[in-house]
């Protein structure tokens, strides 16, 4: 499902959100924490045309209220943009390292 | 002394507690004197910093689940995007407290408005942050901690307040607002703290003691001596009961005469079954399929439904499994399926009425059920049937679905098609419904429709009594009607799990009940004490 592509410090990728309860509290914390480890500016969109929000802001990521089954789009600009998008796509693909047993526990 | 006050709300965490009452202060009404924009900005930043320290300190003491919840709150609080609208308002001349409260309220309202119960429940996390910062702005810091074992009474309780309290000595929570899907309700369930939400009309008077019953959703303020005595008996019984229930749990149920009674279970989601031993029941008397239709991803496709039904049938082995076709509408709206804006949805297009209005969606469910029938002892049940022709129409659609599947070479089987008896129009003349393969009495709706007391209106809750002689008379009539038609009859409403009402059901001749899984032991024990005479 991942399709990261990179050229000259700009990168984009998309991934299907499979987490049972959507982009909720714990997944959002993990996603924004990871995003903040990169220097690149990173944006998250719930559609291919956005609207784009700051992937480092948990307030904005939670406010997107993305349910399970949403395709998340990432785009980044900066020296480590490629790594950033690849890492974020990977986190979502790993289902935020949460076993299904945690579903609903938020 | 204002005297005893009893209220019923929604159960959010089970258990029974008695203790002194502590009112939770409402932080939304605090006031302070405002300074210049620079002073206000500094005051807000300082209050946010202190609040962050509070949360970090709570995290250090919390367990994994609690810490994860607090980490989420801390991340929100430290995010500049959270405070930006408040800082803008301060620059425009608003005082820090109003600016913060308004900024947070806007976001709280946005979450509350969400259709997704999980996101809607996050409003309480933001309320928690709002209150905590406002508390520091007012200079009060945290209010005095209630003594351990206290019954907390208030509008809503924040997760960080919950985690800051000592629950090791008991205690309970009773709220006028709140939700069973809130973070604090999840925490209460995991810590075995009884909790009731949605209690309307709690008087402002000073109460000294309270009972909270987290199973029935009951709050009793300043209970009478006999209510306290009943509680003590219940609590001492509880320990004995657990042992006695465990002893009979896997035994077949009988009434005192030795006559066998089938005890089945009601299931709302397949994942509930993982923790249940099939040996405790005679089958599944009701599978609610609404869970499949309430996913934020939209209506389920045939494959998703088939897999869910098959999982349930395989769990049950050769025991019967009654799956009810989707019972949306009434108090269970489903996006893309139910009809919005009906003036009285309980009397509107719900249950089989809606399925017949939406044949494309109904067809997928019938196909999935016919395919799943290959994997167990399946029966299909139609909710809200009112006239016999509804059975004929559903049967024709089931027949068409099976013909399609056979033409496509997909293995399938035609399961028996029965009905819920929950509309008085059926219960009065059950003998006209011989097209049904079985009856299952839905006592909750039958009670609501017989007493004309809506289930979701607290003010008439007392009238909606399943023990009303009219309800019992209708049940007896349905049991007799089923006997004349030579078909099975069972009951799958809350009545079947109520030891007070089981004697009347047995006297009415009923010999099969389907109950929530945690009630199986209690029901088997209660049945053993019933003579069942008068049938």
Beta-strand proportion of chain B: 5-15%
Q: Mean pLDDT of chain A, nearest integer?
A: 82
CATH topology (fold) name of chain A: Histidine-containing Protein, Chain: A
Please report which band the strand proportion of chain A falls in: under 5%, 5-15%, 15-25%, 25-35%, 35-45% or over 45%.
15-25%
Structural class of chain B: alpha/beta
First-to-last CA distance of chain A:
24 Å
Please provide a written account of the structure.
- The complex is a heterodimer of chains A (106) and B (535).
- With 106 residues, chain A is of the alpha+beta class.
- Helix content of chain A is 29%, strand content 24%.
- Chain A has one domain: HPr-like (Histidine-containing Protein, Chain: A, 2-Layer Sandwich).
- Chain A has a five-stranded antiparallel sheet, covered by helices on one side.
- In chain A, strand 1 and strand 2 (10-16) form a beta hairpin.
- In chain A, helix 1 (25-36) runs antiparallel to helix 3 (81-93).
- The radius of gyration of chain A is 13 Å and the shape is globular.
- Chain A starts with a strand and ends in a 13-residue tail after the last helix.
- Chain B is built from 19 helices and 17 strands.
- In chain B, 43% of the residues lie in helices and 15% in strands.
- The longest helix of chain B has 25 residues, at 37-61.
- The two termini of chain B are 48 Å apart.
- In chain B, strands 9, 10, 11, 12, 13, 14, 15, 16 and 17 form a nine-stranded mixed sheet that branches.
- Chain B folds into three domains: 1-21 and 147-248, Phosphohistidine domain (Glucose Oxidase, domain 1), CATH 3.50.30.10; 26-142, Enzyme I, Chain A, domain 2; 249-528, Alpha-Beta Barrel (TIM Barrel).
- The mean pLDDT of chain B is 88.
- In chain B, helix 7 (159-164) links the parallel strand 4 and strand 5 (172-175).
- Chain B has 535 residues and is α/β, with parallel strands linked by helices.
- Classes of the chains: A alpha+beta (106), B alpha/beta (535).
- The interface between A and B is medium-sized, with 23 and 25 residues.
- Chain A: This is Phosphocarrier protein HPr.
- Chain A: Residues 10-99 form the HPr domain.
